[in-house]
Amino acid sequence: MGPKRIVVVGNGIAGLTASDSLRAAGFDGELTIVGDEHHAPYSRPALSKAALLDSEDMTSHQLPAATHEAHEILGVGAARLDAGKKVLHLDDGTGLPFDGLVIATGSRARRLGAAGNPGNYDGELTLRTLEDALALRRRLAGQPSVVVIGGGALGMEIASGCLAVGCEVTLVSQELPLTNQLGPYLSGVFLAAAVRHGLKLAPSSAAQLRSTGGGPAGGRTVVTLADGSSLEAELVVSAVGDVPNTEWLASSGLLTGGRLEVDTRGRVRPDIIAAGDVAAFPTARGIQRVPLWTSAIEQSKAAALALLGGDGAPALDFKPYFWTEQFGLSLKASGFLPLAGAPDYLDGDPHDGPSLMRWSHREGSGTAVAINKRIPIPKLRRLSEAAPEVASPAA
Amino acid sequence: MKIVLDRPRCEGHGLCEEAAPQLMHLDDDGELVLDIETVDDVLLEPAKAAVRVCPVAALRLA
Ligand SMILES: Cc1cc2nc3c(=O)[nH]c(=O)nc-3n(C[C@H](O)[C@H](O)[C@H](O)COP(=O)(O)OP(=O)(O)OC[C@H]3O[C@@H](n4cnc5c(N)ncnc54)[C@H](O)[C@@H]3O)c2cc1C
Ligand code: SF4
Prior knowledge:
- The complex is a heterodimer.
- In chain A, about 25% of the residues lie in helices and about 30% in strands.
- By secondary structure, chain A is α/β, with parallel strands linked by helices.
- Chain A folds into 3 domains: about 5-110 and about 240-310, FAD/NAD(P)-binding domain; about 125-240, FAD/NAD(P)-binding domain; about 340-385, no CATH class.
- In chain A, the strands form 8 sheets. Chain A has a 6-stranded mixed beta sheet with strand order 3-2-1-7-21-20, covered by helices on one side. Chain A has a 5-stranded parallel beta sheet with strand order 11-18-12-13-14. In chain A, strands 24-25-28-27-26 form a 5-stranded antiparallel beta sheet, sandwiched between helices.
- Chain B is globular.
- The termini of chain B are close together.
- The model of chain B has no long low-confidence stretch (mean pLDDT about 85).
- Chain B has one domain (about 5-60): Alpha-Beta Plaits.
- In chain B, a hairpin with a 5-residue loop joins strand 2 and strand 3.
- The longest helix of chain B has 13 residues, at about 40-55.
- By secondary structure, chain B is of the alpha+beta class.
- Chain B has a two-stranded antiparallel ribbon with strand order 1-4. A two-stranded antiparallel ribbon of chain B has the order 2-3.
- Helices cover about 30% and strands about 20% of the residues of chain B.
- Classes of the chains: A alpha/beta, B alpha+beta.
- The interface of A and B includes residues 24, 45, 62, 63 and 297 of A.
- Iron/sulfur cluster binds near residues 10, 14, 16, 54 and 59 of chain B.
């Protein structure tokens, strides 16, 4: 017998997709979603892209209304899980009994914080939530000088958005930007575009943040770099990684060395599944979190089916997909990243117009990357899977 | 129900095509083409899946 009462914790794309998938698979029992954000789910990827540039009203992040007809408890967080008694305890003291549980609490922005007060400094903006995006847009309207800390995809997208609205922007990054995410070759491609757009680079790790007089909001923030030098800006935005939201599971007995690990069907145990940024799952490169949009969607679909169908449900066949838009470049990548060495060029040259490239991995699979080229994802996936026999652009 | 595409929003990611190849595809220029716009009960689930996966909400059901 399948579960009668399912509780979903987390109202992001993972919680939403799991709920939709449960309904699509025929679950007609009681479905409750608990989410500590007050909003309907929205697109986080849009927050660092089109949403920073939307004129007047910000709409790029909006998703179509949900159709799962779940009972939604929003603005309330899960405080604690009693996995033995199968009861979820909420912040407001309510206890929700369940026979199936979906853990989809995502992650939050890691913060650098102030000297002697890690994780807490008012003048440090991060970008994770809708409120963060609205706050950033408000600040950008005054075209402040900006320091962005973190050379990952998010930091680079934020830097690109700040430049586009006319700010002067310095990016602090220990590695060459995007090297860890995409590898040295593509890092070079993006860096060239970024510099063309006016990005200044401070190749260092940021050590400390403090404000000059006037309070963090009014005054300027001083960023002390690893070599002891410092930068000053009116606005500091950090994008230095994410931390999974697992604190509420601390006493649940479900964490392994602090991580929430699931099997190939997204299960922590038969009646509890986890998906999205919060979950570490088995991939071809080991058990890891893959905190990305399509990863969250694919995990949620597979896990929802396993919650209803157990071992009979198909295992997750995870195929990484990543995209980013910044400095006039739009990249799509199918396959594992980062990429070592130079690619085979299937079409064009990324330094000069649209291009399509492929890197081969040792196992025979590969990664296909398109830059400024519209290409159906199924086609990009096919290119990544097997080396193309004829590299005809019309194929 | 009808699938509605907000064309200026569409960035040609093609995630929707992957979710519902029976309903839509990107043509050679990377423009999204809705092969079927009006969906019946059978096609409603794939249509929902396609609408949901689009990270820029360029698709909706009306
Ligand atoms: C600015 C930005 C840009 C991005 N760009 C890209 C991109 O270009 N491409 C890409 O693939 N990915 C991108 N990502 C990553 C992608 O957005 C995430 O992988 C995805 O949103 C994860 O969804 P999720 O549902 O697992 O987590 P979340 O979206 O974090 O949802 C979890 C929800 O649970 C809530 N919650 C947390 N704790 C509790 C609790 N105790 N009780 C109740 N509710 C709780 C949270 O408030 C949140 O609403 C980006 C992320 C950000 C922030
Ligand atoms: S997923 Fe969205 S942006 Fe991508 S092709 Fe489909 S409608 Fe366009």
